[in-house]
Amino acid sequence: ARVPCSDCLRYSDAIDEVCPLCASADLPPPTNVDVQFLNLACGTTVSGSTRDHPSVFGDPAGDSVFRFALDTTDTVLFDACRSSYDTFLYVLDETFSNVLCDCGDCGGCGTKSALQCRLEGDSVYF
User: Fold this and answer.
1) 70 pairs with which residues across the strands?
2) Most exposed residue of 20, 21, 40, 101, measured as fewest CB within 10 angstroms of its CB?
3) pLDDT tens digits, residue range 62-78?
4) What is the DSSP-derived secondary structure letter of residue 1?
5) How does DSSP assign 45-96, residue by residue?
6) Distance between CA 72 and CA 125 in Å, rounded?
7) Count of CB atoms situated within 10 Å of the CB of 105
């Protein structure tokens, strides 16, 4: 699925290196979501650290949160296999209250994660 992009962003405060990362021009501001996040476009690569990030999901480690949209229903792959630390991945709905897919140590790459998730089009996700 393709997400329309506008301005490329840098988020150097929390993530060491993010480029290219584009914000979707069509994503409205979230409601009832009290967490810092970055807009993510399909096909982008994000690298960095979650050190000093708050824990959003209650685990001892910090979390990075991204928001994205799909224009068509598709299976999306979130691949953290090249991470240098143990990973756990979640996909939540636009209300940030329902976990649609999640996994830790899945995808055949040890303690890293590679999550495939079938998602509906015309929707926003975290």
Assistant:
1) 123
2) 20
3) 888 888 888 888 888 88
4) -
5) --B---TT---SSSSSS----EEEEESS-EEEEEE-TT-SS--EEEEE-TTS
6) 13
7) 14
